[in-house]
Amino acid sequence: MNTVFRIGEIKPLNDDNNPQIWKVHLTLTDADDEKLRQLTEHMRIDPSSSFYSKFQINMDPTWRLMDRYNHIGWIRKQQGKLSEAWAYHEDALQILHEHLTPTHPCLAITYNYIGLLYSTMNDHSRALDCLEKALEIQEKVLKPNHPHLAETHFHKSIIFERLNKIDDAFQHA
Domain 61-172 falls in which CATH fold? Predict the structure, then answer.
């Protein structure tokens, strides 16, 4: 039988001999606790479906191939082999379009890679197009405070700054 407690106040014990000891006030919950029931229901549904989805993707050889293409493309970009990098990212994008929905987060990742590649090639118009596609997908499937959204906005702001479009850069910074 399990017991669930709600954590209340947490404060240092003020023991001069051991300042690392803390006092934690716990409150026993009961079966009628509505917040606990909602949390339990959320944990029962969301993580399991998310885990299953990730499990399926990780087991799919198509996904692994796309992931490798993106990583090789990133490495080629870092090596300055931009045309090779572009070819690998395009292969990844083609695989994604054939096997995933148009709003799958992996598409956003690949569009980000391609956008950064175009930016390196000083093709800012295409870079912004790719980053905007990534952003559209991310805004549909990610929570508003997800770090990938912030990263994409940051990349767009850098490009707008390079184009001396400071107002646009501030919108994404």
Answer: 1.25.40
Mean pLDDT by 10 residues, the chain (173 residues): 75 72 80 74 52 53 81 91 93 89 91 95 96 96 91 94 91 83
Give me the helices (H) in the chain, please.
Answer: 34-59, 61-78, 82-99, 105-120, 124-141, 147-162, 166-172
Q: Is 52 left (phi over 0), alpha (psi -120 to 50) or beta?
A: alpha
Does the predicted model carry a pTM greater than 0.85? no
> How far apart are alpha carbons 160 and 168 in whole angstroms?
6
Count the residues in the chain.
Answer: 173
Quickly tell me which residue has 């000083």 as its tokens. Answer: 122
Cα four-point dihedral sign 128, 134, 136, 139: negative
Phi-psi sector, 80: left (phi>0), alpha (psi -120 to 50), beta: left
Other residues' Cβ atoms within 10 Å of the Cβ of residue 2: 3
Distances (CA, A) of 85 to 47, 75, 92, 129: 35, 8, 11, 18
Q: Where are the domains of the chain?
A: 5-51, 61-172
